[in-house]
Amino acid sequence: MDKPGSLLRLARESQGVSLSAVAARTHFSKSMLGMLENDQRDVKPEHIVAYSRALNIPISALTAPPDDPIRLAHEWLVSDSAPVTHSAVGHRVGRSLADDVEQRVIDLRHLDDAVGGKDLFPLVVKELEDLRTVINECSYADDIGRRLLTAAGELSQLVGWVASDAGYYGHAQYTYLDGAKAARQAGDRILTGQLLSSLSYQIANVGHPDEAVLLARTAVKGAQGPTPVVAALLTERVAWAAARARDRDGAMRALDTVDDTYGRRTAGVEEPEWVYWMDRSEIDVMAGRCFVELGDPSRARPLLQRAIDNYPKDRAREVALYQTWLAESYARNRDFDAAQETIGAARKAADGIHSARLERRVVEIELMLSGRGGW
Q1: CA dihedral 224, 230, 236, 241 (to 10 degrees)
Q2: What interhelical angle do 45-55 and 4-14 show, nearest 10?
Q3: Buried (b) or exposed (e) across 340-373, using 16+ Cβ within 10 A?
Q4: Contact 154, 106 (CB under 8 A)
Q5: What is the mean pLDDT of the chain?
Q6: What are the CA-CA distances from residue 289 to residues 3, 139, 150, 285, 293 (Å)?
Q7: What would the 3-class secondary structure string for 229-243 be?
Q8: 18 by DSSP, 3-state: which?
Q9: Weakest mean pLDDT among 68-72, 209-213, 296-300, 362-366
Q10: Residue 147 and residue 155: Cα distance in Å, rounded?
Q11: Distance in angstroms (rounded) separating the CA atoms of residues 291 and 263
């Protein structure tokens, strides 16, 4: 370990904790901690232990770079969550807990970019259970309560998404609905819409598409005054549900609205953090998927290929998922060699990701290709 101080700084910043806060949680001064993080003083075992306790993270995370997301997920799983740490101090909780919970939700959301649902599921479920305990059993001011309920809504959306990715559809549905209740209690109609829209996406994939269309449209209607990117996301799910229901006109209208809405985003409008991943490539992917569903593979293929080429290579699950749709577009154009090559690449990625959603898609395309006469 060439620069142990930099690992301390990285760990602190990744938790969203200030240097002053670490000083307050330890017996070391802020200036001393600054020198440690800048490698101006030797980092000793007592410093590592102090950071571990102050940040509520395992010691191993401070002694080796966390370049294995699966290892990081399991280390978080065995550590105490922010609600457990704070509520252990007393039954009255305040701003510091809300700050920590909100940052934790962001960290977990980004961890989903690298970890499959089956590996991440126990971690996010544990986190949500701990937060529910605080909400139900601790006391707090009204403004803190709203922040905790909002965090519970956001975390419920993540748990539902991860559960669905792992194939636990019943758990996902219950959690989405429970999260919508928390979001409504917090007075956040936009987050409520996001939760119902996420549920519509699952229903479109594994349930009755007509029901998904109704729920997706309800989410759009109920999320009054959404920001442009949020509105584009919610409308995308209308398009997908309509495409799955074979409603070409409904899907095309929704896709046109997505383009118009996304084009109205401006630097002066602050979007929720939970739409950080929504960009032009994602819109192209959804349009391409809709075209495949609607029997227009030629129109789908360039959209999917461009998005895959531009997608970050460390987002292996998403790249592989999109490759399954690209493979299907090739197959529907009877270019079976390209379809086999593309689904082979997706299969190779799926073997190490532990995502039921990806595995299901790969098997679907492989079965389609094994019975080519039906194309």
Answers
A1: -50
A2: 10
A3: bebbebbbebbeebbbbbbbebbeebbebbeeee
A4: no
A5: 86
A6: 46, 47, 32, 6, 6
A7: HHHHHHHHHHHHHHH
A8: coil
A9: 68-72
A10: 12
A11: 21
Task: Estimate to the nearest angstrom the gap between the alpha carbon of 347 and the chain centroid.
Answer: 22
pLDDT at 69 (0 to 100): 46
**pLDDT confidence of residue 70:** 43
In angstroms, the CA 192 to CA 139 distance is: 24
What's the pLDDT score for residue 315? 79
Please tell me the predicted confidence (pLDDT) of residue 82. Answer: 53
- How does pLDDT run across 297-351, given as a tens digit for each residue? 999 999 999 988 888 777 788 889 999 999 999 999 999 999 999 999 888 877 7
Burial class of residue 58 in the structure, from the number of CB atoms within 10 Å of its CB (0-12 exposed, 13-18 middle, 19+ buried): middle
Within 13 Å, how many C-alpha atoms sit on residue 270's CB side? 2
Neighbour tally for 18: CB within 10 Å? 12
User: Does 104 or 63 have the greater pLDDT score?
Assistant: 104
The model's confidence at residue 245, banded by pLDDT at 50, 70 and 90, is very high
In three-state secondary structure terms, 188 is coil
Farthest-apart Cα atoms in the chain, separation: 73
Would you mind telling me the total number of residues written for the chain in this entry? 375
Task: Give the C-alpha separation, 319 to 305, whole Å.
Answer: 10
Q: What are phi and psi of 108, to 5 degrees?
A: -65, -40
Cα-Cα end-to-end distance for the chain: 56
Helix, strand or coil, per DSSP, at residue 336: helix
Distance CA 259, CA 98 (A): 35
Question: Distances from the Cα of 316 to the Cαs of 121, 312, 327, in angstroms?
Answer: 18, 8, 16
Q: Is 312 left (phi over 0), alpha (psi -120 to 50) or beta?
A: beta
267 or 252: which leads in pLDDT: 252
Whether the pLDDT of residue 1 is over 50: the answer is no
Report the C-alpha gap between 26 and 179 in whole angstroms.
36
372 confidence band (pLDDT: 50, 70, 90): low
